[in-house]
Amino acid sequence: MKNKNTIYNLILIGIGFLITVIVYNKLPNQIPTHWNISGEIDKYSSKLFGSFLLPSIMLLVWIGMLLTPKIDPKKNNYSKFDKSYNVIINVTLTFLFILHICVLGVSLDYNIEINRVIPFMLGILLIVIGNYLPKSKTNFFYGIKTPWTLTNEDTWKKTHRLGGKLFVLSGLVIIISSLFFTRNLQFTVVIISILVAGIIPIIASYFYSKNNI
Description:
Blueprint: H1 2-23, E1 30-35, E2 41-46, H2 47-71, H3 82-107, H4 114-132, H5 153-180, H6 183-212
Antiparallel strand pairs: 1-2
């Protein structure tokens, strides 16, 4: 399984760099790197920096997530959720890859509604994370890390079960908003959904911990 994941990620990163090299001479001197809530480009970067930014981030993220289990004080726990951790790596790199293709497409004047594509992909990312989050074990890098989850395995489990459900729900809401809502409302829904999925489990972990004392 590890070899298959490694091959997939290396191919994805390699294709990201290769596509950039192939279309590089056709790209404009300024590459869009940020969009406002109305879906309008409001920041550009130089051709070299902007075109290779996301493949480089993909490479760094992949290396970082491979090294994390080796330096985590709770590194022995990673073997207990190795499959789900690899899925998270795969889907994260896939998200960045699609974002990169969108950036190149917009740069080449293709009509891509970035304000709908990215929230849609973000929703899928949250759903996948939400499905695999409850399978994680205590560690210092991945998951909902609070003083209460890191010191009590039962609190970790309960918090991540709740977090997983909220991530999936938030992902579904964001996907729906990307398909049907106006841009400003869509932005509001995305922010609220992320805050709900991120904050509620942190607060809940405190109360779970108190109930376990």
